[in-house]
């Protein structure tokens, strides 16, 4: 009983996070597509309808290239079935992209891949069994006894959901080290320009992120980056229609309602108050926190900033990730955590770093995942 209580009391540490973006720039892809005289002109279309000064997105990376389209022209022909082709390609590429992120996270963590006890894999892009979690475990050489879970169709909130589950596992299994891997490839839903979908196609990019989560860091070099102190998931009632995905013969079709930024704006304050009340803080000053917000779109970040009266620097990490990679759905939050880590390392004065922070991710439901975070360095200073 004593040991059980000690485990439940332990704080949780995000021990390392990393990324492995796919490496083809959308703009370069566009040139290749044009060179192949394929009936698409994506970048030009985006530049008119969603220019970078409006979207906040300068670059995105996609796996799709002209060679792939030459081999599978059905991908850009809405009148031909292409779901099977896409699912086949994803079966290999989703775990491969996750592998590149996971290898970097494991290297930064500093322990052996075989020390990983649990794996949570999240993707909206994989529809194949044995699923991507099993393949990733094989690619990384994880122990055959690694305990695997795959999450699907949580959309952009899946990174937050996976971290929350990892926290539960780590706190309830002594010595557990949970690898969280999110890998997203837009090829599963890619289509040629279409006015009704242009906002979504202008936002999303490919990428993978990986984080290692454990409780009670060992003394052999583990360096916790963030503590996850409390977690919550909130669904905004009556908003099921706002974000949705559906399998069709020509890939996964998605719908983004124009109301999403407003729905988040109207609900975020209460959601945050509830999250901080759960850790005994009934009157948080939002500008005293550090912020890891899923950059679902520029308007979402603007609305949060406006509603909570945040200083512009507070969402700078989220805006930078949006600018450099676009919205990589569930994988994006690992990039934001990594960017916060990088910014924190540049900050000379640890005393100036906020001790408390918050992670927010949004997905279908509309669901808001929130995690109250703590900076282990600032906490250590206070305790010493
Ligand atoms: C796309 C934007 C950057 C565009 O910003 P702008 O400053 O240009 O101005 P704006 O918002 O007025 O939009 C410009 C034009 O696009 C239209 N428009 C905007 N959002 C739309 C949508 N979802 N569907 C269809 N049309 C849309 C507007 O009506 C307007 O049309 P007109 O010019 O005719 O008046 C922004 O609206 C934005 O960030 N929206 C949030 C995107 C979003 O929902 N992200 C969540 C992704 S999903 C996610 O992260 C979770 C998940 O997947 O689960």
Summarize, please.
Residues 227-374 form the Chalcone/stilbene synthase C-terminal domain. Helix content is 40%, strand content 21%.
Give a quick set of tags describing it.
2 domains, Peroxisomal Thiolase, Chain A, domain 1, Chalcone synthase, binds malonyl-coenzyme A, alpha/beta, globular, 384 residues, acyltransferase, Polyketide_synthase_type-III, transferase, 11 strands, Chalcone/stilbene_synt_C
Secondary structure blueprint with pairings:
Elements: H1 2-9, E1 12-19, H2 26-35, H3 42-49, H4 52-55, H5 66-71, H6 83-109, E2 118-123, H7 132-140, E3 147-152, H8 158-172, E4 177-184, H9 198-203, E5 207-215, E6 226-235, E7 243-248, E8 251-256, H10 260-277, E9 290-293, H11 298-308, H12 316-325, H13 332-346, E10 356-363, E11 367-374, H14 376-383
Parallel strand pairs: 2-3, 2-4, 9-10
Antiparallel strand pairs: 1-5, 1-6, 4-5, 6-11, 7-8, 10-11
Helix pairs in contact: 6-7, 10-11, 12-13
The chain binds malonyl-coenzyme A.
In one word, what is the shape? globular
**What is the percent of helical residues?**
40-55%
CATH architecture of the largest domain: 3-Layer(aba) Sandwich
N- to C-terminal distance: 30 Å
Instruction: Provide the spatial order of strands within the biggest beta sheet.
Output: 3-2-4-5-1-6-11-10-9
Attached small molecules: malonyl-coenzyme A
Report mean pLDDT, rounded to a whole number.
86
Number of helices: 14
What is the number of domains?
2
Largest sheet: 9 strands, mixed
User: Roughly how many Å is the radius of gyration?
Assistant: 20 Å
CATH class of the largest domain equals: Alpha Beta
Structural class designation: alpha/beta
Strand composition percent: 15-25%
What is the fourth-level CATH superfamily of the largest domain? Thiolase/Chalcone synthase
Spans of at least 5 consecutive residues whose pLDDT stays below 50 are 1-10, 35-40
Provide the CATH topology of the largest domain: Peroxisomal Thiolase, Chain A, domain 1
């Amino acid at each position: 009983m004593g040991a059980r209580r000690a485990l439940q009391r332990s704080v949780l540490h995000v021990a390392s996070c990393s990324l492995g973006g796919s490496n083809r720039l959308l703009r370069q892809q566009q040139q290749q597509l044009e060179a192949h005289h394929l009936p698409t002109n994506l970048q030009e279309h985006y530049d008119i309808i969603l220019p970078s000064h409006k979207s906040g997105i300068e670059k995105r990376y996609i796996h799709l290239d002209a060679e792939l389209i030459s081999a599978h022209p059905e991908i850009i022909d809405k009148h031909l079935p292409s779901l099977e082709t896409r699912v086949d390609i994803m079966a290999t590429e989703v775990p491969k992209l996750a592998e590149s992120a996971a290898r970097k996270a494991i290297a930064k963590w500093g322990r052996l891949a075989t020390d990983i006890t649990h794996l949570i894999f999240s993707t909206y892009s994989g529809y194949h069994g044995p699923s991507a979690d099993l393949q990733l475990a094989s690619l990384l050489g994880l122990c055959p006894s690694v305990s695997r879970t795959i999450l699907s169709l949580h959309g952009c909130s899946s990174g937050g959901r996976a971290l929350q589950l990892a926290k539960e596992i780590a706190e309830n299994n002594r010595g557990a080290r949970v690898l969280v891997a999110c890998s997203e490839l837009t090829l599963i839903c890619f289509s040629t320009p279409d006015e009704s979908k242009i906002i979504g196609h202008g936002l999303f990019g490919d990428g993978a992120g990986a984080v290692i989560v454990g409780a009670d860091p060992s003394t052999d070099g583990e360096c916790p980056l963030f503590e996850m102190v409390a977690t919550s998931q909130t669904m905004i009632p009556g908003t099921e229609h706002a974000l949705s995905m559906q399998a069709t013969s020509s890939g996964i079709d998605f719908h983004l309602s124009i109301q999403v930024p407003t729905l988040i704006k109207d609900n975020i304050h209460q959601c945050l108050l509830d999250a901080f009340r759960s850790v005994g803080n009934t009157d948080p000053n939002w500008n005293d926190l550090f912020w890891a917000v899923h950059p679902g779109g520029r308007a979402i970040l603007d609305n949060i900033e406006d509603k909570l009266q945040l200083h512009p620097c507070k969402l700078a990490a989220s805006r930078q990730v949006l600018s450099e990679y676009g919205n990589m759905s569930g994988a994006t939050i690992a990039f934001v955590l990594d960017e916060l880590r990088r910014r924190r390392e540049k900050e000379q004065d640890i005393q100036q770093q906020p001790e408390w922070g918050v992670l927010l991710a949004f997905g279908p439901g509309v669901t808001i995942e929130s995690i109250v975070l703590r900076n282990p360095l600032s906490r250590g200073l206070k305790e010493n």
